[in-house]
Automatic annotation (TrEMBL):
One GO CC annotation: membrane
Gene3D superfamilies: alpha/beta hydrolase (3.40.50.1820)
A single GO molecular function term of this UniProt record: peptidase activity
Occurrences of domain AB hydrolase-1 (ranges): 75-327
Species this protein is from: Flavobacterium enshiense DK69
Signal peptide annotation: 1-20
Name of protein: Proline iminopeptidase
Active site (catalytic residues): S152, D294, H321
Keyword terms of this UniProt record: Hydrolase, Signal
Sequence similarity: Belongs to the peptidase S33 family.
InterPro entries named among the record's database cross-references: AB_hydrolase_1 (IPR000073), AB_hydrolase_fold (IPR029058), AB_hydrolase_sf (IPR050266), Peptidase_S33 (IPR002410), Pro_imino_pep (IPR005945)
GO biological process: proteolysis
Amino acid sequence: MIKKCSLLLLTLSLSPLFFSCKETSEKQTAQMNPYFQKSNDSIQTGGIQIIPIETPKGTFKVWTKRFGNNPTTKVLLLNGGPGATHEYFECFESFLPAEGIEFIYYDQLGCGNSDNPKDVSLWDLPRYVEEVEQVRKSLNLNKDNFYLLGHSWGGILAMEYTMKYQNNMKGLIISNMMSDAVAYGKYADEVLAKQLDPDVLKELRAIEEKGDFSNPRYMELLMPNFYEKHILRMPAKDWPEPVQRSFGKMNQSLYVTMQGPSEFGISGKLEKWNRQPDLKSITIPTLVIGARYDTMDPKHMEQMAKSVKKGTYLFCPKGSHMDFYDDQEVYFKGLISFLKK
């Protein structure tokens, strides 16, 4: 009994010292790892910030989440689709924090955790450009720290934004997106379609001609013959969970309005979009990322890197449209190198 009491007294006497050491340790950790410092908010929310967005149809809210803290390198991520979510970018957590690179998830209006006004008039490229600018201001991003990474449709949005607001930016990353929708459609017809089995292509074309895109047979043909070869090069059943989760939440109204229902080229609002002649006006450091098996022409994307004033091209030899999954080593090594320059 005496031994137990003595031990209890000893423990109690050391408690203040224990907590003092713990507090000191936490302070030292914060000083040594500023990347993990908490925000100045009275309540910590894991970096989540809900941002009000003014639109022609009123005010809506979009969802963002900051990961890490780096005053000179902040990467805002623009997801593709159009109509997917930030979630397929979750693999970035396995690479960028180790390098101290801050990045910000962001669901565009109509996507994921953000408001969905269900108004097709708001599915409009110039309006999305102004949305990104409002997000930038709310997050205090500026020319000394702000990198914009747009993937697929997000790449179109990133290019458009940069044409208007590059004075607010430090750098641009265009991931897996061509600068000309007409050229994209031509590449899909003349290169990708011809790689399909003729019988498969014939059946796909027949479904498209009828406009029968809800026919389950359409996806049955596309998944093994197109998606698993050019979107993400592995069996669909093995696609990473963040990809499946993101694609499972696709806003079909937004997708069809902007992209069109077909996978072979663009037929929606973006059908005639072309910024290739204007790339020369981009003067900030720009990284263009292409892949051998992408739905986008890698040679076209290489030319894009040459067209901007300070361009760098990153080629992923094993990758497809989602090369940050199927050619991760090359993708992230190149991306991190660009950001650290």
